[in-house]
Amino acid sequence: MLKLIIGVKGTGKTKTLIDMVNTATADSHGAVICIERGVKLRFDVKYQARLINTNDYLIFDAQSLYGFISGILASNHDVTDVFVDSALKICNNDVAAFEKMLLELDELIGKHEINLVMTSSIPTEEASDIIKKYL
Questions:
Q1: According to the model, what pLDDT value does residue 118 have?
Q2: Among 47, 31, 36, 53, which Cα is nearest to 114's?
Q3: What is the secondary structure of 4-65 as a DSSP string?
Q4: In the 8-state DSSP scheme, what is residue 70?
């Protein structure tokens, strides 16, 4: 299942994501992955989740993020949940590439029974049909 949490800055997207990550670490019988740009979540996310900084792996666009998530799933068969904070920002704010990545990720995780949740700073009223599909 692919889910997007969108809204303008300050609407609680990251706080919601943190709560979801921490709940998943308690409930999951597999690996929980949290991907972020920078290290702002390191004190908020429980240590049981694998916290990954995209800057450490030179992930600066949608294609790289898709490849990175695919690689995680290919190399670790017990992943149950993947969370991505500020996904559009990681994708260099390229909305078209972000939307294409969403469609590709939806197809990928459909084969693996993975929960994938992403946050993005997009005003709800400006969300495209593709983005609305995952709200």
A1: 98
A2: 31
A3: EEEESTTSSHHHHHHHHHHHHHHH-SSEEEEEESSSTTTTTS-TTSEEEEGGGGT--SHHHH
A4: H
C-alpha distances (whole Å) from 21 to each of 4, 27, 38, 119 are 14, 10, 17, 12
pLDDT tens digits for 1-51?
Answer: 999 999 999 999 999 999 999 999 999 999 999 999 999 999 999 999 999
3-state helix, strand, coil in the chain (%, to 5): 45, 20, 35
Q: Which two tokens stand for residue 12?
A: 């609680």
The string of pLDDT tens digits covering residues 59-111 is 999 999 999 999 999 999 999 999 999 999 999 999 999 999 999 999 999 98
